Amino acid sequence: MLRLKGMRGFTLVELMITLALLAIVATIAVPNFMQFIRNNQVQAKADELKSFLQYARGQAVTTRKSYEIDISSWEIKPIGGSAERSIDFSNASTVVRSNLETGVTKLNYQPNGSVSGPATFTVCYNNDFSNGYLIELKRSGLIKMYMRGYKNNTDKLTNCTL
């Protein structure tokens, strides 16, 4: 074939090698990327739950009324009033569990910011406790979210159930 001076290109072998290398890199990267997405989904749900609890406490303090959180429907409302805010935890893969006693579905925030009882919530993806979050709600109303995979500052989570 006649080749013009200064004309350049790639051979078929060079293109095939490049495509093979790209396929290898993609095979390694896709599972890691999927885990990254799942971790971000769990963190987003944990952050959403924490801000939901903070909102309920803030409303109780600023309006000087008692507010309740209905855990069964995830709604915040003043006691005797209608729902002001709700949160959707219907995603089947991200699981939120609490340590509330059987039959107890409500937490009450008092006007001073304290809550009716302490509670602990875990947010996990398909019971993957190593990437789950634990959120503690103290009786004083303080909300503490621990690092991913930890149940306190030093000990790791061992399961997603409480």
What does this structure look like?
One of its GO terms (biological process) is protein secretion by the type II secretion system. Residues 46-141 form the General secretion pathway GspH domain. One of its GO terms (cellular component) is plasma membrane. 32% of the residues lie in helices and 21% in strands. The strands form 2 sheets. It has a 4-stranded antiparallel sheet with strand order 3-2-1-5. The protein has a 4-stranded antiparallel sheet with strand order 4-6-7-8, covered by helices on one side. The model has no long low-confidence stretch (mean pLDDT 86). It has one helix spanning 12-63; strands at 67-70, 75-78, 85-86, 94-98, 106-109, 119-125, 133-137, 143-145. By secondary structure, it is an alpha+beta fold. The relative contact order is 0.14. The longest helix has 52 residues, at 12-63. The termini are far apart.
Q: What would the keywords be for this entry?
A:
single chain, 162 residues, alpha+beta, 4-stranded antiparallel sheet, 1 helix, 32% helix, elongated, membrane
Distance between the termini: 74 Å
Rg, nearest Å: 25 Å
Strand order of the largest sheet: 3-2-1-5
Assess the beta-strand content as a share of residues: 15-25%
The main β sheet shows up as: 4 strands, antiparallel
Annotation field: number of helices: 1
- As a percent range, the share of helical residues equals 25-40%
Number of strands: 8
Shape field? elongated
Mean pLDDT: 86
Helix and strand run? HEEEEEEEE
Segments where pLDDT lies below 50 for 5+ residues? none
Structural class: alpha+beta
Main location: membrane
Membrane topology: Single-pass membrane protein
Domain General secretion pathway GspH: 46-141
Protein name: Type II secretion system protein H
